[in-house]
Every structure is written in structure tokens, then in C-alpha cells.
Design goal:
Two copies of one chain form a homodimer. By secondary structure, chain A is of the alpha/beta class. Chain A folds into two domains: 131 residues, Alpha-Beta Complex (Aspartate Aminotransferase, domain 1), CATH 3.90.1150.10; 241 residues, Type I PLP-dependent aspartate aminotransferase-like (Major domain) (Aspartate Aminotransferase, domain 2, 3-Layer(aba) Sandwich), CATH 3.40.640.10. Helix content of chain A is 44%, strand content 14%. In chain A, helix 3 packs across helix 10 and helix 5 runs parallel beside helix 6. Chain A is globular and about 70 Å long. At the A-B interface, helix 3, helix 5, helix 6, helix 9 and helix 10 of A face helix 3, helix 5, helix 6, helix 9 and helix 10 of B.
């Protein structure tokens, strides 16, 4: 009688909508309390290293904003977002080959809310969303909240496999399922760290076009490449792609400013959905970022971030080589993440409490699948801890993994004896 | 064939969820372009007079924040919101008799998003939401977006009528409808300006409790009383009331910071829904407001706002007396709005383009009903224009109304002749 207890504490249990039951504490969120303990090296998180952003740059932008347009910045504003900032976003996207009009850009409360609002416009209970396997935990959460089914498509070191995509579409269509989106993070993906190869992009676009599937291109990390620029955005090849961008990683997440570029008819509905949900995004945050882009060397700042994350990626890969040389890991050329495959038989979720006891945290692989798989995978985020701490963390992780591997072998031998 | 044209411009028409079709350009939003023309006196809007807030106060709070906690302010933060600010919100709500725990407060992107998230937790297609007649246009929009039916309950100068509420509940229950919420703005309501009498509050709480209906108390204006404090909040009488508050009117809306106080089990789901939708509310906006509350004379600032709005309310009522003495209007004792009844046979929506031609704007009454009624009502918002402009605006409005009344009489006479 699982409901009896719940009823005792929740008088309104009979009133919830079905979608309320899709919500559960994510494995990433549950780690927040752990992460904040100073003695734990957290390789979980996903936080940008905002310490590398000089606060006086923000202060300069703020002062100018308050002086020039203070009353506008603290007032209600338009539901589509600040026009000047949208024009600057247009230039930002042009760096990835995207041609766009300010008319088709909508500013949002982080790109997360852009994805939430777009999902609300399209997803009905039982619809299918195709996504990389593994995929961004926050996106899976949104799709589930709209009662959609997330179907993962196999991914390798060149990103999503077009053949696997084609097979999945064929199979799902044969089953009579309604596929609404292909959601993907093509550059330095969260959690895999891999980048979708240029030659695969056109093929994927073509497959989705042919099958009337909307492509959602989520690209928070694209500008954080270490050596080589990423291939042009999928959106640069097809105006029907819905493109999601964010200032959280190239500036700072605390402002909660992201953006969506989408076809005009969808954009019109998106603005209405946004007005319904929040009236308007924060004028203050948007205009502050707009001043920052206009007045400061934001490209130099991104270069600084690249240097910080490159050094940390190197520290992480070096430590992997030193302490866990037998494990396979992705080798990201930008972004925040390593994706690690554990020795067979190890379960990253079951192992997490042991790791925390060893004072290191990571995110278990199951967080990045909607279907319970990913047990022997884990994600390491190297963006926030110092290079030295990354090494300490991976050393600690190696202790846990090695012990678990020994235990597995011991039990396996015992098993053999029987 | 209305869909043929649409199809030409929207390749994805067959993919939308049903809820996408609940969205339409609201009568208030459509006025935005008009409002921005300087020669038009806008009595539409709903904007607080943020010019009365000294920008150097904000600047002082910002500087301190950046200096003391800059890296935290621009980082990701918790999904429930800043703990210090939640504690300050607790004190704010205590001014209205509310006893609460910081544990049960959730910070949101304006109270609008609080209402949106709560609605998402409970509303299924076809559910009923009871609301004042008239009710806040943004709330009606949210309820419709979740495909709920809004049933208006008659309201007079003492607010929602308990007898009408009882009758509506009985009738809807007899029809087998599922009533989830009673939504109300008990103080200086938008758009009516009226306040729910103290003696009615307990009766309404009792009726909802008896019928297992959640009460949503939306109170953005309560602290903006002109002379007399408002009665204690409904939430002070029943811990099951979901209370929505906002900094948009007592500080500024550009930060997009509001809050929800709700029962623990609902709060838990609300935090998860918020994390799904936006990961976390803006740390930057929240911490800036927290500094402002800690360091500045915020109660003195609210007193300043009261003075500004009192003077404007007086200007509006004086002008009504001078130019439109025969029309009935509510006499708000706080907040932003007058609710005006037009002479019989006049239609405020049809009249709006004529008013704009006369360089005055207002919001037609139909915006505040989900059922198409309210044609001979209109809302005047006196919060933003200067007292002189309010008088000019109402004078212009009287020209339009008087001309329309004459025309009506002329046609009526002609009609009689026939």
C-alpha cells in the first residue's frame, strides 16, 4: 500500500495531474548537498569556472546600464526579449555559420526554458523524442515531464550514428509511434564530450527532413573548443532546425539567459508560450549582457575560458592515464566532460556512495539515459575543480574502482569454485 | 478552409500538441506597440512606476553583492532559491499575518512562473478553475494553456461572493466536473481594484476546504495600500493555501523575482518542476534583491510607492468625476486599477481603436474573462502615467465614450422610428 503513507502527508494527492508523477529527484540534483562539502572533490556538477570572469567587467557594464537605461532595465519588457541583445546573438550565431534574422530569435530564461517551452508546444503523452545515447539529463527530464518517450540512438566518437538513426526511425514508424523531435548536443556533448562529425551532419538533417522530424540543436559548448573550431551548426544547413544557445558557459549561468532560433511560425507560438509562462524574460539580465557584449572584450574572455578548460581537460586525461590506464574514456576537444566506461560488472550508481566516502563525486551514467541503461558508465566534469584537484579526484576514484574490480574478481572466483 | 493558409507558412502544423492551440495574442499584449508611442496616454499597461526607485540604491546593493559574493551570484544555484532571500520573504509575508518556514518557500521567475508551475502540477484537460469575475488576464491565459476551463464567480465591491462560490461549486459538482483550484487576487485585485472583505475570507476558506479545492492566493499588491492595511492573508488562516508573492510591484519587475509558499508535499514537486523548466531561478537577481532588503530602507521605498499611487488614484477618480460623472467605477484603496462600467450598449473592445485615435489606451473588459463577457467594462491602470497625464487621458476617453453614447442614442432613436 504505497499510497497510504503518501496520503498521510499530502492531502492533495488525488488532485495532481499525471505529469506531476513524471518528476523525480535526478541523480545529479541529489548530489548537490555532497558537492558543497569542501573536502569532497566534485567531478559531478557541470558548473562553469566563473572565477575566471573578472567581476569588474560586469560592474562596468552594470554601471553603464543603470546610468543610461536604468528605468528600462528594471521594468517589464517584451515577451520575445531585448532587440539589441537579439541582434548581438545573431552575430554570435554567425560564428557558427548561421544566418538569421532578429525576428526569429527569442530570448529565454536559460536555454533550459527554451527547451521546456518548445517541448510544451509539441509534445503530447506518448510521443517519441529521439536523442543521443547518452543524452543531457536536463533534456531527458523535460521530455519525460511532457510524458514523451525518449528513444536513444547509438553514438560513437563521431557523435550520433546516422545508420542507427535511420534504423530507429524505421522501426518506430513501423510500430506506429509519432516521432516529434531529434534532440542533440552536437558539440562536446553532455555527457559524452564527443562532437558530431561534419559529414554526419548533412546526412542527419536529410534523414529528419525526409521523415518530418524537427531537429533540436542544443549548443551551449560550441565556442569552447580547445584547438579547432567545430563544424558549422546544423542550423546553418537547414532553416527548419530549432537552435538553442546560452550565455551560461561563455559568460555566466547566474543571469539565466539563453536563446532560441526557430522557424517564424514556431517562433510566434514560442513567444506566446513564454508570455504565458513568465510574462517576459528579465530585462535586467538581458540588458546587462547586452552592455557586456557591446563594451567588453567578450571574445578575449571566451579565449580565457578555453585556456582554463583545456588545461583541466589535460589534467583529467593525464590523471586517467596515470591512475586508470585500463579504462576507456572519450577525449573531448572542447567543453566540460569525460565519459568513462567502467570495467565490466561495475555499477557506477551503486559505487557512488563509496566514492563519496573516498571524497570524490561524479555523475552515474544512468542519469543520461531515459531507459535505465548506462550502469557501467560515468561522467566526469573537469570544468570547475583546479587541475590539481582533478588529479586528486581521479586518484581517489581509481582507489574505488580498483577495489570494486578486485571485489568483483574475488566474487567471480568464489562463484567459479561453487 | 482556415488551415490551408496556415499550412503554407508552417511546415510543422501537424506536429503541435493541443496545448499549442490554446495560445493567442492577448488583448493586453497586442497594445504594446500602441503604448510605446509617446503621444498616446496609456492607461492600459499595468507597469509599476519604477522611476520612483532611486537607481543608486540598486547600485549600492549590486556593488556589495559583487564584492562579497560575486562568484556565487553569477553561478548556477539551487532549484528552490536563495536561502537568505527566502528568510527575508518569510518576514515580508509575516506583515500579512502569515507564519511560514523557509523550507516551504520557493523562489520563482516572477510570481507568473510560480502560477504556471503550480498549474502544470495539477491541471489536466477539462479541469475547472474557479476565479473571480473579472480575473487577472495572465492567470486566465495559464489555465487555458493547460486546457482547463475557467469558471468565473461573481464579485462585488467586497470581492468574491461566498454565496456565488457555493452555488458554482454545487452546480459544477452536480455536472460531474473536477474543480482543482480557486484562484483569487484578494487585495486591490487586477482588474477590479476591489479587496476581499475580512469576513468573507474565512467563509471562502471553509467552502474550499469542505469541497477539497486548493486555494491559490495571488497577492502582488497587498503592501501597496493607501490608508488602511489589508486584512490578513487567506494563507494566515489555512496552511493549505498556496500563496503567490512578487517583488515586481514593491521593488521592480525587471528582475523577475517572485515566490510561492505552499504545503510541503506540493513544494517538493514544485521544486522539481522548476528544476525541469529552468534548472534554477537567477541567483544574480535573487541575491541582488536580498542585498537590497538587507541594506536599504525598503519599507520607506514601499511608503514612497504608496504615495505615488495614492496621488494617481486620486487623479484618476477626480478626472472620472469631472469628465465621466455618470459612469460607475470601483474606488480602489490600493494597487493600480480602476474598473469602469460603460453605458449600456457600448463595447469597450470595439471602441478601443477609436480611443487610440483619440490618443488614449485602456484594456477592454473582455480580456479579464475566459468566457467572452465583460464587453461593457474596461480597466484603467493609473500606476504609470503622471497625474496630469491621467487627467488628459480620462478627458480623451470621455470624448470617445460620449460620442459613442450619442451615436448609440441616435441609432436607438432611428430604431424607434422604424
Amino acid at each position: 500500500m504505497p499510497n497510504t503513507t503518501a496520503n498521510k502527508f499530502d492531502d492533495w494527492l488525488d488532485l495532481y495531474a499525471d505529469r506531476a508523477n513524471t518528476l523525480s529527484v535526478s541523480e545529479v540534483r541529489a548530489l548537490f548537498a555532497v558537492v558543497s562539502r569542501p573536502e569532497v572533490v566534485s567531478l559531478a556538477g557541470g558548473m562553469p569556472y566563473v572565477h575566471a570572469l573578472p567581476k569588474d567587467t560586469i560592474e562596468k557594464s552594470f554601471k553603464k546600464l543603470m546610468h543610461d537605461r536604468g528605468d528600462l532595465a528594471i521594468q517589464y519588457s517584451g515577451g520575445q526579449g531585448d532587440l539589441t541583445l537579439r541582434d548581438q546573438v545573431r552575430e554570435l550565431m554567425a560564428l557558427e555559420g548561421i544566418k538569421s534574422s532578429v525576428e526569429d530569435i527569442v530570448m529565454t530564461t536559460g536555454s533550459q526554458h527554451g527547451l521546456d517551452l518548445i517541448s510544451g508546444l509539441f509534445l503530447e503523452r506518448g510521443d517519441v523524442v529521439l536523442a543521443e545515447g547518452p543524452s543531457y539529463v536536463g533534456a531527458i527530464g523535460i521530455f519525460r515531464h511532457y510524458e514523451a518517450h525518449v528513444e536513444h540512438v547509438e553514438t560513437d566518437n563521431d557523435g550520433l550514428q546516422p545508420e542507427a538513426l535511420e534504423e530507429a526511425i524505421k522501426r518506430l514508424k513501423a510500430e506506429g509511434r509519432k516521432i516529434k523531435f531529434l534532440y542533440l548536443v552536437p558539440n562536446f556533448a553532455n555527457p559524452s564530450g564527443v562532437t558530431l562529425a561534419a559529414k554526419r551532419r548533412a546526412r542527419i538533417i536529410e534523414l529528419c527532413r525526409k521523415n518530418h522530424i524537427l531537429v533540436l540543436e542544443d549548443n551551449p559548448y560550441g565556442l569552447l573548443y580547445f584547438d579547432k573550431k567545430v563544424p558549422n551548426a546544423l542550423r546553418s544547413m537547414d532553416d527548419n532546425v530549432i537552435y538553442l544557445g546560452s550565455f551560461s558557459k561563455i559568460l555566466a549561468p547566474g543571469f539565466r539567459v539563453g536563446y532560441v532560433l526557430c522557424p517564424p511560425a514556431i517562433r510566434e507560438k514560442l513567444v506566446l508560450a513564454q508570455e504565458s509562462a513568465i510574462l517576459c524574460p528579465s530585462a535586467f539580465s538581458q540588458m546587462l549582457i547586452s552592455e557586456y557584449l557591446a563594451e567588453s572584450d567578450w571574445q578575449g574572455q571566451i579565449e580565457t575560458f578555453r585556456g582554463v578548460y583545456r588545461e583541466r581537460r589535460d589534467a583529467a586525461l593525464d590523471a586517467m592515464k596515470e591512475y586508470l590506464p585500463k579504462l576507456s574514456t572519450t577525449r573531448p576537444e572542447g567543453g566540460f566532460y569525460l565519459w568513462i566506461t567502467l570495467p565490466e560488472g561495475l555499477d557506477s550508481k551503486a559505487m557512488l556512495p563509496l566514492a563519496v566516502k573516498e571524497l570524490v563525486a561524479y555523475t552515474p551514467g544512468t542519469a543520461f539515459y531515459g531507459d535505465g541503461t548506462g550502469q557501467n558508465k560515468l561522467r566526469i566534469c573537469y570544468s570547475f575543480p583546479t587541475p590539481d584537484n582533478i588529479k586528486v579526484g581521479i586518484k581517489r576514484l581509481s582507489n574505488v574502482i580498483n577495489l570494486q574490480t578486485e571485489l568483483r574478481d574475488t566474487f567471480a572466483k568464489k562463484g567459479t569454485k561453487k
